[in-house]
Design a protein that fits this description.
alpha+beta; 4 helices; single chain
């Protein structure tokens, strides 16, 4: 199973919606490392480690929510199906 990092902002309006999708995917065996980047310096530092990939995939070096598997990035998915397809890709 591949490792997926989720970068999120604790007070982001999309957070509740996205977290319910993550819980569903975790029940199906996927593993997510969830890192808060707005209020947590360690999380902010980690997202900056992926700035090249984030800029290439998202157009900015930090955007939440975003998902990284080490090679690919998905920024601000608009539906559960979009996230699920990316995770399975």
């Amino acid at each position: 199973m591949k490792r997926i990092i989720m970068f999120y902002g604790k007070t982001c309006i999309d957070n509740t919606r996205i977290m319910s999708w993550i819980e569903k995917l975790e029940r199906n065996g996927f593993k997510f490392e969830k890192l808060e980047t707005w209020k947590n310096e360690e999380g902010a530092k980690r997202v900056r480690e992926y700035s090249d990939l984030m800029i290439k995939g998202c157009g900015r070096d930090t955007i939440v929510p975003s998902f990284i598997d080490g090679k690919r990035v998905l920024c601000n998915p608009r539906s559960f199906e979009e996230l699920e397809k990316w995770v399975n890709g």
